[in-house]
């Protein structure tokens, strides 16, 4: 009988709810309402501030389950802004609103799911006369969306890997090493490639054929091998 009474007393005592509380017993919630606009990088770079203001968002405590913000870009041209806009804290609110996926401001689980479903569009032009419209069409914000759809290759709106493959299919293979061979870039905008394409031995023959001037692979007597740029 004593054992039964002891169990009944224990059952009548109030229990603290663990979910939604921090380790010190306080409610696990953010002090400000817009923590998401600062992004996940803020949690580590400004940890002291984040612990005071964004404990739940930064997972410094166990918060009640919430529906995560979709890991999507609201703009179709986030890649045009490059990586700089993603890394600058001044643009964090804009990034979280417009280019969340491009800037990788999602949870690891979200990124894994979206990455598995996302493939870049083919690096091809949908029309045959893109050159007629000129590069101004590629850079003009008014026509950029149209250019991305119809003149993706001409406007160089592809990944570097795609451009390497596409350019190799559209250039003519010639024999190197004639002393009087003119040294000129065979494709426009070699500068869109990273320096790695000039210095990495994996791409050396491609660079000599397509971008010798940009990659500084010329001499007065033809092609020469020069040390990689520091």
Write up this protein.
The chain is an all-alpha fold. The chain folds into 3 domains: 14-117, no CATH class; 121-158; 167-230, no CATH class. The chain has helices spanning 2-12, 41-45, 47-53, 84-87, 92-98, 108-117, 130-133, 135-139, 144-150, 160-170, 196-199, 204-210; strands at 218-219, 222-223. A hairpin with a 2-residue loop joins β1 and β2. Residues 28-61 form the ShKT domain. InterPro entries: ShKT_dom (IPR003582). Residues 1-20 form the signal peptide. It holds the Pfam family ShK.
Can you lay out the helices and strands and say which pair or pack?
Blueprint: H1 2-12, H2 41-45, H3 47-53, H4 84-87, H5 92-98, H6 108-117, H7 130-133, H8 135-139, H9 144-150, H10 160-170, H11 196-199, H12 204-210, E1 218-219, E2 222-223
Antiparallel strand pairs: 1-2
Question: What spatial order of strands do you see in the largest sheet?
Answer: 1-2
Mean pLDDT: 76
Global Rg: 28 Å
Q: Multimeric state of these chains?
A: single chain
Ends distance: 84 Å
Q: Number of helix segments?
A: 12
Instruction: State the shape.
Output: elongated
Q: Estimate percent helicity.
A: 25-40%
Number of strands: 2
| Element pattern in H and E | HHHHHHHHHHHHEE
Portion of residues in beta strands equals under 5%
Main beta sheet, described?
A: 2 strands, antiparallel
Q: List the uncertain runs.
A: 1-21, 173-180, 221-230
Task: Tell me the domain tally.
Answer: 3
Class by alpha and beta content: mainly alpha
């Amino acid at each position: 009988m004593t054992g039964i009474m002891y169990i009944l007393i224990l059952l009548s005592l109030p229990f603290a709810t663990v979910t939604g509380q921090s380790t010190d017993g306080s409610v696990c919630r953010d002090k400000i309402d817009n923590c998401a606009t600062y992004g996940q990088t803020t949690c580590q770079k400004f940890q002291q501030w984040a612990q005071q203001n964004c404990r739940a968002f930064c997972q410094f405590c166990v918060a009640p389950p919430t529906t995560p913000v979709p890991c999507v870009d609201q703009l179709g041209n986030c890649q045009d802004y490059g990586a700089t806009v993603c890394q600058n804290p001044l643009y964090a609110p804009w990034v979280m609103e417009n280019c969340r996926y491009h800037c990788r401001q999602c949870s690891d689980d979200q990124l894994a799911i979206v990455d598995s479903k996302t493939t870049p569009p083919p690096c091809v032009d949908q029309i045959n006369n893109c050159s007629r419209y000129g590069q101004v069409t590629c850079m003009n914000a008014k026509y950029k969306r149209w250019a991305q759809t119809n003149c993706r290759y001409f406007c160089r709106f592809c990944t570097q890997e795609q451009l390497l493959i596409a350019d190799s299919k559209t250039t003519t293979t010639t024999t190197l090493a004639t002393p009087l061979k003119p040294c000129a870039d065979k494709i426009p905008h070699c500068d869109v490639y990273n320096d790695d394409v000039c210095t990495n031995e994996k791409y050396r023959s491609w660079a000599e054929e397509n971008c010798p001037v940009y990659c500084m692979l010329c001499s007065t007597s033809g092609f020469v091998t020069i040390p990689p740029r520091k």
